[in-house]
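User: Can you predict the 3D structure for this chain?
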Amino acid sequence: MSAAFFLIAALLIGVFQVHARVAGRFVLQEALERGIFLEAEEKKEAEIRQELEQEAENQLRSFFWCGDGRLELEWEGNVIRGQVTAGSETQIEVTGYDPENRIRLLTAGGI
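Assistant: Here is the predicted structure, written as structure tokens:
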């Protein structure tokens, strides 16, 4: 009987870890997309970073099992990189709208 309880507890912990990982990825992706959108509105980079990191961390910490989650954003030109640690570590990179580079890539690719 006790073995069954330990098995159920282990399965529940695994489910909560998967939940934390998925919730962290969704919050990070949303923050990156919002960062690209807000950057298009020509706000200052420091304002964007501070607002997004604070809102995203608050949102992340509101999820069950993500209370100690950390989220960091980094701007590098037209690229925003983000990292979230909640159950596991995830890194995502999003490139902003860059029509000139897109045309060059299409021309070089022969498309």
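The first strand starts at residue 70 and ends at 76. The chain has a mean pLDDT of 78.
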